[in-house]
Write a structure and sequence with these properties.
51% of the residues lie in helices and 7% in strands. By secondary structure, it is mostly helical. It has one domain. It has a two-stranded antiparallel ribbon. The protein is globular. Bound molecules: zinc ion.
């Protein structure tokens, strides 16, 4: 399911978009996302920020999402940043690259950022 295809006038795609909006307002989604927000309190894009929302990296498994595969926890800033890049095809290449970083476990990100910082300190 790709609700971001709604920019193209097409009955089928608009219908899928309605399905998505209905789902996002449902108790099923509210409970699921609440659980993840309590478990993952750090932003997956910028780990130094607190998480604010559960973001769909793909809409393929709507209703049976898995954390880190379909959805990820993001700060308000990171979420707006990612969706500011929205195009007719979601996720686009740039968003796919960002999602790849988001999927990496936090401790690996910390190690990566630590070595990156060391490199800049030496310069
Ligand atoms: Zn989102």
């Amino acid at each position: 399911m790709k609700p971001y295809l709604k920019t193209i006038p097409n009955y089928k795609k608009v219908y899928l978009d309605m399905d998505y909006r209905k789902y996002i307002k449902s108790n099923k989604w509210r409970n699921k996302s609440k659980g993840w927000r309590q478990k993952y309190k750090r932003c997956a894009l910028f780990p130094w920020l607190k998480s604010h929302t559960i973001h769909h990296m793909t809409y393929k498994n709507l209703g049976k999402e898995k954390y880190r595969i379909d959805v990820i926890s993001l700060s308000f800033f990171a979420h707006s940043f990612i969706h500011s890049m929205d195009t007719a095809d979601y996720p686009n290449l740039l968003q796919k690259i960002i999602h790849l970083w988001c999927r990496i476990p936090l401790f690996i990100k910390i190690i990566f950022l630590f070595f990156l910082l060391q490199y800049f300190v030496r310069m």
